[in-house]
């Protein structure tokens, strides 16, 4: 398996390595065709309002239904899409598809409900390129949805990669009328006080801060993050709520929303609509004092 290149360079190929390299190249070309072949599926995971457990919105999460390998998770193809520059097309597909589903849900939901929202993950290559603004403008102008109900999720580490550029992009995104969620908060070693300079309206606390530790207690920092977010004027979504006691304790700490297996796994757009009709978010009930 040794191959002589030129005079003195020798490259050794082990069969396994070669196989992996071919797999990777095959996967790249298959991924390039996956969108037009309708193999990319967008699922929606409910985000629940803890006050009454009503469905407030959904996060769009991509899957790739590979013809031979079966259903692949984003961990298995998003980074490939980023590396080969396909994330721009993939991202636009997810954004456009999600906006269309959101418009459908909003149209089907009877009047007198809080407008449902949908949030879409944005990756670093997308945020670096200015086409994101054009793409978003296009999607918002051709899709009839309530202003602010389509949100972009940007991770804390992505903002910290290039804070100045991120700040410019986020301001423009906000001006176009999209919402902004700070995703995976707590994993990127920055502070909320610093991130407050960016126009986020929601923070999503990473699941590692939400669930109980091995000693059965909540991470002490959880309560402080929620309180600080509120002081800074942001609403809070807790990620990875898996049990009812997660949900109860998060509500007691003042967290507005939660997402996790306790409330539903990622589902199809039709299933999302059924759930929404079953548990729509009514406007908060006014408590009229009796004295
Ligand atoms: P994320 O944005 O933090 O999404 C939440 C992840 O947590 C999802 O994984 C979801 O299925 C999972 N999750 C939700 N509830 C629970 C729970 O109760 N317990 C546990 N253990 N996990 C839970 P998923 O779908 O595999 O997505 C992983 C990541 O891939 C996402 O993390 C997001 O960063 C990225 N991603 C997904 N779809 C897209 C996309 O269309 N574009 C881009 N750029 N990234 C995407
Ligand atoms: Mg997310
Ligand atoms: Mg997240
Ligand atoms: Mg996360």
TrEMBL record:
Per UniProt, the keywords (alphabetical) are:
Membrane, Transmembrane, Transmembrane helix
Domain EAL, residue spans: 24-280
Q: What is this protein called?
A: EAL domain-containing protein
């Amino acid at each position: 398996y040794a191959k002589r290149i030129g005079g003195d360079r020798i490259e050794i190929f082990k069969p396994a390595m070669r196989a992996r390299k071919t797999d990777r190249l095959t996967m790249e070309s298959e991924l390039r065709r996956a969108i037009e072949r309708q193999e990319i599926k967008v699922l929606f995971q409910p985000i629940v309002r803890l006050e009454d457990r009503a469905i407030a919105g959904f996060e769009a999460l991509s899957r790739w239904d590979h013809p031979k390998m079966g259903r692949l998770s984003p961990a298995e193809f998003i980074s490939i899409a980023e590396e080969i520059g396909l994330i721009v097309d993939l991202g636009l597909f997810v954004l456009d598809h999600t906006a269309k589903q959101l418009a459908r849900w909003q149209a089907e939901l009877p009047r007198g409900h809080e407008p449902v929202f949908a949030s879409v993950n944005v990756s670093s290559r997308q945020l670096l390129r200015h086409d994101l603004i054009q793409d978003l403008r296009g999607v918002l102008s051709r899709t009839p949805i309530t202003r602010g109900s389509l949100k972009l999720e940007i991770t804390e580490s992505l903002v910290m990669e290039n804070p100045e550029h991120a700040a410019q992009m986020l301001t423009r995104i906000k001006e176009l009328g999209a919402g902004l969620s700070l995703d995976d908060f707590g994993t990127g070693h920055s502070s909320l006080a610093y991130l407050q300079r960016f126009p986020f309206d929601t923070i999503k606390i990473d699941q590692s801060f939400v669930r109980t530790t091995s000693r059965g207690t909540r991470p002490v920092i959880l309560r402080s993050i929620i309180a600080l977010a509120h002081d800074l004027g942001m609403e809070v979504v807790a990620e990875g709520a898996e049990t009812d006691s997660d949900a109860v304790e998060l509500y007691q700490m003042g967290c507005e929303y939660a997402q996790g297996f306790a409330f539903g796994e990622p589902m199809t757009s039709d299933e999302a609509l059924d759930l929404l009709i079953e548990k729509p978010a009514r406007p908060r009930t006014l408590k009229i004092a009796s004295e």
